[in-house]
Each structure stands twice: as C-alpha cells, then as structure tokens.
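hiii, so i know i said id send this last week but things got crazy w the move. better late than never?? heres the sequnce for the chain we talked about at the cafe, plus the structure i predicted for it. fair warning i was half asleep when i ran it
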Amino acid sequence: MKSEEADNIEELNNLPVDSIRIAPYLSELKEKAELLINYHKLRQECPEITADLRPSSVIGLLQNNYHGVLRSRDDAGSRVLIYRVGQWNPKEFTAYEVFRVSLITSELIVQEWETQRNGLKAIFDLQDWCFAHALQINPSLAKKISSVLTDSFPLKVRGIHLINEPIFFRPVFAMIRPFLPDKIKQRIHMHGSSYAQSLCDYFPKAILPPEYGGTGPIIDEVCQDWTEYIMQSEDYLQRLSLDLGGGDASQSSACE
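okay and structure toks below
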C-alpha cells in the first residue's frame, strides 16, 4: 500500500504545473457530473414528485400559505425557506405533492448565483402536525428526501431548523435520519416550542417574521409574495418539466 502511495506521489510530482492546477477543477467537474446523473435518476424513479413542476399543480398548498422564502438572506448569504406543515391538509395533498413544492422552489433559486454559492437554510414549523401527516411518510419517500438533500440537487443545505415539533414527530424523524449523511445530521436543530429566541441565534431578527421572533414581514405576506413569484414562473417550470422528460404527474405511476 505504501509503495502504491509513493508511486502516486511521484506521478503527481512529475505532472506539469498546469495539470496540477487543473486537477481540483476536474474533481469538481466529476462531482457535478455525478450530481446531474443522480438528478435525472431521481426524476425517472419518482415522477409523482418531479414529472409536473407547474405551480398550478399544487396551487391549493401555495394559496394556503404553506411555504414562503424570506425576502432577505441571512448573514451568510443563504436563502431562508419556511414550511408550515399545519397548512398542509393531508386529505387534499399527498406527501409527494408537498415535496414537489420544495423542488419547484429549488428549481427557481438554483438559478441564483449567490444561492449556488451560499446555499439555503430551511425552517419547518411543525405546529398542528398530526397522525394523518405522519401516515403519509414512508421509508421510500424518506430516502428520496435524503437524496435531494445530499446528492441529487445542486444546492447546499446549510441548516435545517425544526420548531413546534410534537413528541409523535420523532418516529418520522427517526425514519429519515438513517438516510442522512453526518454533515446534514449535524446541521439539524430542534427548537421545540420555545423557539423565538433560539431562532434569532441563527438568523437576524430583521429578516424573520414576527411569528418566529423577528421584526420582518409577517409570515402570510412572505408566503403570498413567494406564491406570486412562483406563479409568474409557471411557463418556465412547465418547459422545464417537458425538457427533462416530464409529463402529466396524474398519469405517472407511484414511487416505489
């Protein structure tokens, strides 16, 4: 083994300077190629989430103020996304459709150079989480959520913050956790119901809605503004669905 390492070092030393300089870029290119392959694999394996990226396909969730993106970035330049699980009616929308909302937003913010560089952070408000929500989460979906968080989408997840998490959310989190790499696990923060101060330890008060201990715009305005922005991107997202081989999600087979 030591001989092999020595040979590798000698080979590296013999490389022209230009080759040494380009090596990190080749490594980055390989990583991005693998990411692209995984992304297309995800789209093929789970059309229920990815085949129809039109916001109108989940308009009920959006109009119910389920999701918004804060107007300002945090101090690290990260986008801050908020999901209000209590605004999701599991009788009307499946977990796959709920997850599609995240993918729609991701497809839009990934175009932003600053977001590509500084990533995103997400706040999940689990107020009113109930058993009907929990029953929608299965190991297959948990694995796909993990895949998007780690190796199937070109966005860096810098932090995940859970608030108002009830005791019976823990089994669902325990289902997802094994699929997550250590670096993501270390970025998950559980704040409980006393989150107003602790969230401000991670985010500037000026950008957080008052419902979450901040002085920014109220959460309903944040969600409505983002819904309007998403709906303006309907044509682009429809073209993206078609360009990537998508179709009518209602005609697609369920994820396995």
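btw The beta strands are 67-69, 79-84, 120-125, 157-163, 188-192. thought thatd interest u
miss u guys!!
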